[in-house]
Every structure is written in structure tokens, then in C-alpha cells.
Amino acid sequence: MQYEEKDFRLAEEFCGIVLGTDEFYRKRQMEASDETSFTSEGLVPVNFSGVSPVLISSWQEAIDKLTDIYHGYEKIQDPGRKNYMLQQVGAFRKICLWLSGIPMSFREIAAETMFIDENPVGGAVLEARVKALQDTLEKAGYRGTAKEQVAAWQKARAVIGAEETKRVLEKLLSEAKEKTLALGFEAIRDFDVHAEIVYNVPYNAYCDYMSRMIYINGEVTYTYDELKHLVCHEAYPGHMTHMAVRQQFLEAGKIPVDAGLVLTNTASSPIFEGLADQGNDVLEWVEDLNDDICRQLNQIQSICNQNASHIYYCEEDGPKKAEQYMRAYSFASDAKIKSRLRYMGYPFRKAYMYAYWRGWEALEEAWK
User: Fold this and answer.
1) 185-208 burial: b if 16+ Cβ within 10 Å, else e
2) Apex CA 219: angle with CA 202 and CA 188, to 5°?
3) Cβ neighbours, 10 Å, residue 132
4) pLDDT tens string 102-122
5) How much is the pTM?
6) Cβ proximity of 243 and 209 under 8 Å
7) Torsion region of 141: left, alpha or beta (phi above 0 gives left; psi -120 to 50 gives alpha)
8) Which residues pair with 86 in a beta bridge?
9) What digits encode the pLDDT tens for the residues 113-161?
């Protein structure tokens, strides 16, 4: 990808508008919510751009400024960069239209902010993946129905208790960092990530880049293999590594400053999540059938989370039906289902579940 001088200028202008809009949102428009984990993010969960916010006093002002930036990016020469930034700017403009009060359907929000297929995944696709999971579980010695097989595997592989979970996480973080450094990611050499167990949160795991911490929901019991996947997804070589490399290149002046922002519900979201979900494969850290089982189960649960969010917002009595759907098909514990429902119930993240499966789907194909 080739960057031109105009691109660097436009990126700085874009960041200033985005950060100014974020300030406007935080001060005047943020919806009342008990989910402080998400309200504290605003519109920009991570910012190391070094850009000062532009004063934004209304949604319409933000929309007008973003429209001007959009037209500027139409004149960028590199086709890949042009397409990406037109989607990013267009997505953030769509967010502003949405938050300004213009009526939008759930499907429109999913499709036109993250540029993904907004349809739920069909039952036949899910059934085929469950059958493949059963075959792998059988190879590992587990018999019975799919639910019986999964339950037995989860019990056999479970890491029990907060103290043991934290110990395993710290060990896996150390191993994952060494494997990531061996691939040449020098940006994380002096970059130590640690884990903390937290409670009453709307997520399974959360990456806080600026504090170099990952937070793990202590109400959920994880298998060893799930913790390994979470470490790869959240830290090495996932989100933490991804952002560290971006910050390294940005500070060296090699890439435009928009790389210093992480934005929720934009074209970058599925890529952000999809890259992180390839972490085990990137490190070639797939040691036995347990890793394969974990991957297949995670994919099924990502599909179910996406489908449940569609049910939640598109069907009558959606929240109740979404919970029933997850209990029937996701193989998830009550605690995990509770956190997933809280996640998709937060208005600004209502469609974000799509970023995980659609991102994994796209990146898995590209990786292969």
C-alpha cells in the first residue's frame, strides 16, 4: 500500500473530527447505562494518534465535516487505501447519523457501519459445523450426543477457580509472547501484558491496550484451551500486538495517524477481530485435538452470538428468544450466555457480534 502526502493530511483531519465527535458524545449524548465497561469507551476505545480533537457542537456539524473528508479520500490514488478509508469515513458518518436520532434498522446498522453480510448464518451451516465438532470430539474419546460430548470435554479441560485461572493466564501470556517475538514482532519486546479476573462485566475477555491489561470474566469457567485462545486473541499475537505494531509504525512516520484510533462499529472492526481470532494459527500453537475442539466450538459460538443478536433486535420478544436460541445451540454456560446477552443489549454494540464471526470467516479464508 502506498501513502501520499495528502493521505497523511486527510488522516489527521479525520482523527481530529472523530475525537471531537467522541468528546461531544461523551459530554452530551451518551445514553444512560449501567454498563460502565462500555460507556467509558465512548466512540473511541483506544487513541494513541497524538491528534487534538476538533470542537464539534452538533451531530450535523460532524456529519458535514466527515462528508468533506470523504470527498477528499475519493481523490487518493492507491486503490486499497482509498477503499479502506472511504469505508472508515463512511462508517463513522453513518454512526453519527444513527446517534443523531435518524431511524435505522438493526440490519442497516450492521451492514453499513461494518460493511459485512448482515444476514444470520443458516441452520444448515451451523448443523454441519456441529457435526464436524462431534467427529473431532469422538476422535478425542468423547461419546454421546453433541451436548453430552461438549459437556464432558469442558469438564475434563476446565480450569477451576480465580487463582488458578490467573496463574494459567500468566503462564500462557509468557509463552505466547515468546512465540510472537520469535516471529519478529519487536514492538512487543518491552511490552508485558498481565491478566486480572473481574466480575459483573458484559464480556468474556477485554483488552485494555493503554494499561497493558486483559480482563477476564471470573463468573465464567473456561477450559485451558479457551484461555489459550483468549491470550492469543487479546494479547499475543492479537489485539495488543496488532496495536503495538501500529503505534510503532505511526510514531516512525511510516503510516497515517488514523492507525492510532480503534473505532467501534466501523469497517475495521471485523478485520480487528478476525486477525485476533487467527492468533493460535499464526503462532502455529495448535498442539493437539483439544486446540481443534476449542477452535470449532469458538466458531459455533461466534455464529450463535451473531444469530442471537439478530433475533434480539429483529424479532418480537427478541431478548427472550435470543436467550432461548443460545441455550439450544451455543453449548455455552449460563454465565457466558448472560454476559453475551448483556454485551449485545448495550445499544452502541448491538450489532458488534457480527464483527467476530464475519471477521473470522474473512480472515480464515485469507489466512488459508
Assistant:
1) bebbeebebebeebeebbbbbbbb
2) 70
3) 14
4) 999 999 999 999 999 999 999
5) 0.95
6) yes
7) left
8) none
9) 999 999 999 999 999 999 999 999 999 999 999 999 999 999 999 999 9
